[in-house]
Design brief:
This protein is of the alpha/beta class. The protein folds into two domains: 126 residues, Quinolinate phosphoribosyl transferase, N-terminal domain (Aldehyde Oxidoreductase, domain 3, Alpha-Beta Complex); 143 residues, Aldolase class I (TIM Barrel), CATH 3.20.20.70. The protein has eleven helices and twelve strands. The strands form three sheets. A six-stranded parallel sheet has the order 6-11-10-9-8-7. The protein has a four-stranded antiparallel sheet with strand order 3-5-1-12, covered by helices on one side. Helix 8 links the parallel strand 8 and strand 9. Helix 7 runs parallel beside helix 8.
Length: 281
């Protein structure tokens, strides 16, 4: 996760929330009033984004003092203090929502990811994310997946070749698509092909794909296809994966299971910032 990218995301978020300052705080809070606050967990979760939380306040005022109580990737329980912060009350109030939005969202992704990782424990299967991320926040959200124990799939369209159904429709099938990729790039990029049927999966392997994605296959069809592909290519399962069926999918023998809902449907974890002022004498 690049520091520059994180700072750009924070700057955009603060500009969105403070286009002309915080008119409520400006009217009510004296500029010299000091305050302390705690980041408090309201439910179980896995922490991700504590450094982003801190950086929001440091961006507003570098002199703000912060103490992290947990590291990213750590589990937490309701009522647990995750961090402490002190400085001008106006700064804490201006940064509160932006900082919470980041840490709640990222912790939600880490928490969701860990639930899927635990569901396949002992199978050897690795849980992958997808590109179904919030625009502009991909690196942060993929970081949160890693903190939850997941593995990042391709970051972007430049990272590897993934031939999907619409590519196949344009190319005229698996064979022509793989041939076109190899003609253009040789072995420069890892080549994955999405297969909706066992026949497509076998054709992809025969054509020279490195990796085959079994898309929305039934469990019986997946088992049969895995037996035929094992040792020839890496095998990924994808499509309509949930906590109720991921263990069954893992037990078919696939190497990876990719899950869009790690990022596109993760519920933010409930956290709060509780502020106490230090009254002037």
């Amino acid at each position: 996760m690049k520091t520059l990218d994180v700072q750009e995301a924070i700057d955009r978020a603060l500009a969105e929330d403070l286009p002309a300052g915080d008119v409520t705080t400006a009217a009510i809070v004296p500029p010299d009033l000091k305050a302390a606050a705690v980041l408090l967990a309201k439910e179980d979760g896995v922490l991700a984004g504590i450094d982003v939380f801190v950086r929001v306040f440091k961006t507003l005022d570098p002199k703000v003092a912060v103490r992290r109580k947990l590291r990213d990737g750590s589990p937490f329980r309701p009522g647990q203090v995750l961090g402490e912060i002190s400085g001008p009350a106006a700064v804490l109030l201006r940064g509160e929502r932006t900082a919470l939005n980041f840490v709640q969202r990222l912790s939600g992704i880490a928490t969701t990811t860990q639930s899927y990782v635990r569901a396949v424990a002992g199978t050897g299967v690795r849980v992958l994310d997808t590109r179904k991320t919030t625009p502009g926040l991909r690196d942060l959200e993929k970081y949160a997946v890693r903190r939850g124990g997941g593995v990042n799939h391709r970051r972007d369209l430049s990272s590897m070749v993934l031939v999907k159904d619409n590519h196949l429709a344009v190319a005229g099938g698996v064979g022509p698509a793989v041939a076109a990729v190899r003609a253009a790039w040789g072995r420069r990029f890892r080549l994955e092909v999405e297969a909706a049927t066992a026949a497509e999966a076998m054709e992809a392997a025969a054509a020279g794909a490195d990796w085959v994605m079994l898309d929305n296959m039934t469990i019986p069809e997946m088992k049969k296809t895995v037996r035929r592909l094992r040792g020839r290519v890496k095998i990924e399962a994808s499509g309509n994966v949930c906590l109720d069926n991921i263990r069954q999918i893992a037990e078919t023998g696939v190497d990876f299971i990719s899950i869009g809902r790690l990022t596109h449907s993760a519920r933010a974890v409930d956290l709060s910032l509780e502020i106490k002022t230090k009254r002037r004498r």
